[in-house]
Structure to design on (1236 residues):
């Protein structure tokens, strides 16, 4: 790595500005009204390092719907709570299928391919609902702790919208239930799942909250272990093979960092032993990944030589 | 990383001996007679570093059938030959399917998911057949050059056996041909493919031949560029998401290194900026990966802290 | 046809007795406790002709759970209610898949392959729920009318059991809902569906209630049109290609009659322009069809030359 | 049935003329040049009865490529040759998939769903190649005998075209071979298969050659048994559930006759105990069935009350 950090702010601003000038940027998620209304021209990015540096550019303090990025947090909570037993109920293989594939879930007899596709994250929600007396509160509380910021909330409009358009996720949940791989009641599981998808955070909060994954499990903001070193490796491994929907291979190929995206337009990328990048811009490509976010992170990784491969 | 190299030989020997004492080691590949006859008790391992160190233990100089490890070499040759145009004809996504899945190839309309599943490697063979006047000679010549060793050969018994049992691969090839994604005649493509699968190499040759992938594309044995730095990253990325058949996710999760295995019982693992590990033992688990090889590499990666994540 | 009806009772008794002596008869459905408790040694059969003849043998007056046979009744009610518009929402092709396949429903974007697989019957339930103010009462009332028998009821234990084990059907329903192919609320649709599956009838009631399908739509018991001649043809066509689960082709091949079976062990077979056969015995083969029922109907069809082909 | 045969010629001519006036008639098959060149405006129809009546209208004596209709003849020959053993190697279930689906063949482990999809007919070709010293001659000879007409030939241009564009069928054959369900050499099997697809016949020849299926196995032209009564029932059953590609259910639903179509634009329909209808017009709908042919046969079946259901 040649992580030359001089002029980091200038680099980030230049990269973001370059994106602002491009015309083709994809389409904002419109499967629920609450997401379709977001201003497509907003964009921000931030980088937080394990040594305590932070740089944010553009709308990096504008909160947005984290959507599938929430799967990373849920996964860490569930790993902490049930340990290796978790992997009896969910696999850790890339899926080679769309994020919401019910076909693969059927083939695999109700065992999701990994915890960051929808079926896997619903299963994780079941773990949290079953192991916490108040799983939604616990989730928010976990986020506020690791981000070291109390100003993290649920967007109730998004939550209601998700619930009203959640029939496909309900199908996934009931299918897993039919294979005895959901313990709690399906409506409770879905309520947790849609709640965690509906959290809003900004680029700064996301970058800082995930520093423990770049730092062997230890949150450098408060020097507290969030998970073990081994668990941090494992989460990064899963994000590397499966974090960017059905574009995960291409992201590894062209960028080379563990990452997770959400249809709210956010992308987080972990740079082991260095820090976390977060980029946000609502318009998505056909895989559900933010076009600007992908380009920004690819450019930064190229410039700083961040590929882990 | 805490790559403490003192007593490296002792560490390797201890790890290999530990494997020798375990009883359950899987079954030798028996889909072709020539492979089924290999002594299941042979086992060897080697590590070569980009700084010129080399340690081999056990039967590390015993040549074995490299089988799917040949896909790495073919991929590098094709990338060198046709550049980015290659990725119009083969994808770079993990497959989430068995290595010889014809279902996925049909879904994807004849575009293989990645170059290290069978369909992808057959497509790569088509590229080589179409772009070299004598692709089989070119392949062997390439191996001898990068391994810096002339003593690398084709096992003609294995080749004949592969050809006689290659109907499924023929089906994959004709299906791609039906989608106009094979240019040469199918029998010629298959002949090349089975030839490269039938090469025999030993642990030392394999570890040394792939050092360029750990060294930004440059072969440290002779300080010659085999591919660009970017191409080396890309190959490692593909091996990380897809190199260990349908156990690739688990290997990333538990070991954390780009790797490729073959049903001859060999596994190579790339440690970027450090070196290459090769382990060999014929008995395979249900995914087609060498049981001893997996355990050996996992143990070494754990002990030396080699995970890239 | 050589429908020699002399000694019909003797023929039926001989055929049923022949079955009683066979040892291997499959297994009673055990996916819900209420079905698993049925005495596997009960067996009965009946034949009703459009000319008013009726013969019953064995336990032909013992009521049993009609299960999927209810799909025939629901289909006729829905055809009567919405006419050809029904076929915008459900296809009429054989499925080539298990009766509860969620994979095919996904491929076909929420349009069930035909109305007698589970997804199709759930869709029909949605039609009935949406078009009747009290669809469950209407269903029972329809049965009592066409069977000319008030003694037809719902088994509430079976209903509760179905509801408690209905997660897979819930998955099918929510998946269709996600494709906007379910209009009512899913729990209401499932309640109707499980209700109609939980009806109990005996061989006599089933044979007589379906006479209209053998008689160009007209119920000969009371000379009332239940559906048009064309609709009767259509229902028989669907039963011929799809009525016996994934053994429909074999049933057409070896018996040659439109038929529908249920996991309660009942089978009804329509003999156009002649009558209806009903056979019942709880133990099922691996396809979900009553072993004794299949053998009995095959034997009778052979003896009387009933094949429509 | 109300088979009023008075004015049969007038009925046929009226029905064909009605089709001639319709504008939207689909597209001529263009996957091989030899078929794409056929005049789309040709159309003919014929009806032959088991009592010896025959009526032909339009271009009923114009020979065309029988394509998949050849599967009926091959099936009968193979049934005659190997008896019930045939059904160990090919199933008899409708497929619910396109005629050339390789996915289903993989699922079913090399056992084709039925003998009238491509994989099934290739398997039948293997039976013929393996059981006749000169299977292609035997095939033509069989056709000439049952049609009672020596003027039946192979179109060698079509044959060469099929062979040159047959990669998908080669994939199906090699996949079956990999499951040990092809005995002969694949190129020999394909040569037979493409030969039988390349036969040309006219409406009269087709209608007359298949009369045995409407007549309990006996060819009324020469009063010779072509197959047993049971075998005739079985073939008709297979044609009823699977003869019209992925429109078989709809054809049963709306017409109600065992039938087989080919992409040359021909359709034959069997009317048990009555006769055979053949209609021909090259333009096809999206399922591969002749638009005019479907409409013509549907109209005639409606008018004469021919549905078997």
């Amino acid at each position: 790595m040649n992580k030359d950090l001089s002029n980091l702010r200038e680099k980030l601003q230049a990269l973001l500005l370059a994106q602002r000038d491009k015309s083709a940027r994809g389409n904002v998620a419109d499967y629920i009204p609450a997401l379709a209304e977001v201003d497509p021209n907003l964009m921000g990015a931030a980088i937080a390092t394990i040594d305590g540096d932070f740089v944010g550019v553009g709308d990096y303090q504008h909160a947005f719907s984290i959507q599938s990025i929430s799967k990373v947090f849920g996964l860490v909570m569930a790993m902490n709570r049930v340990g290796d037993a978790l992997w009896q109920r969910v696999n850790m293989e890339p899926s080679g299928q769309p994020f919401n594939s019910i076909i693969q879930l059927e083939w695999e007899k109700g065992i999701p391919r990994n915890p960051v596709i929808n079926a896997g994250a619903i299963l994780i929600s079941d773990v949290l609902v079953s192991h916490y007396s108040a799983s939604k509160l616990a989730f928010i509380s976990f986020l506020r702790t690791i981000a070291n910021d109390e100003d993290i909330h649920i967007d109730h409009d998004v939550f209601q919208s998700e619930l009203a358009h959640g029939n496909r996720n309900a199908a996934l949940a009931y299918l897993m239930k039919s294979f005895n791989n959901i313990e709690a009641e399906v409506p409770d599981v879905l309520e947790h799942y849609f709640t965690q998808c509906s959290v809003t955070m900004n680029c700064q909060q996301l970058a800082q909250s995930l520093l423990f994954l770049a730092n062997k499990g230890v949150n450098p903001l408060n020097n507290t272990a969030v998970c073990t070193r081994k668990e941090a490796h494992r989460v990064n491994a899963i994000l590397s093979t499966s974090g960017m929907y059905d574009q995960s291979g291409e992201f590894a190929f062209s960028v080379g960092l563990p990452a997770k995206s959400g249809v709210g337009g956010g992308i987080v990328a972990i740079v082991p032993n260095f820090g976390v990048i977060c980029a946000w811009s609502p318009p998505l490509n056909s895989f559900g990944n933010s076009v600007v976010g992908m380009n920004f992170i690819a450019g930064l990784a190229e410039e700083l030589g961040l590929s882990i491969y």
